[in-house]
Amino acid sequence: MKFTLPIAPQPQMRARHGRTRTGLSVTYKAPGQRQAEASLIGLLVPHRPETPLAGALSLTVTAYLPVPMSWSGRKIAQAETGVLKPAIKPDLDNLVKHLKDCLTAAGFWGDDKQVVDLVAAKRYNDGRGARWEVEIQELETKQPGGKVATPRRATPETPR
To answer: Can you give the chain as a three-state secondary structure string?
Structure first.
């Protein structure tokens, strides 16, 4: 399955820590993180499969980041044609972590540990706007004895 999400890629934010009035330590998500997750999950839901994917998966992701408006016209053109790459924050692994967590929450698969192949890139938008381009493929796996197991969907009788 292949789809595009028209939303600016956001990184996974670090967990926040604090204390309650009684002195207990608590860990919580930043308010901006919750909002970013809700927006992304809302865009993912129409693309999710009827039943969660089971077995080994391959994930290919390209995060197209917005070009800074403060740049000169020449530099913007270089970014949009791919000459300049976004070797800046946010880190690619934090972008992918955020997307994988949202794919899990949206019900694409039971757990993101199922992703065994990952190809990820970050680029500046190419004139079509900031967005995510996502491709998920189910992989065949070889069982002991040389048998090939085809991917199967999780069902109510089959644990995810």
So the answer is: CEEEECCCCCCCCCCEEEECCCCCEEEECCHHHHHHHHHHHHHHHHHCCCCCECCCEEEEEEEEECCCCCCCHHHHHHHHCCCCCCCCCCCHHHHHHHHHHHHHHHCCECCHHHEEEEEEEEEECCCCCCEEEEEEEECCEECCCCCEECCCECCCCCCC
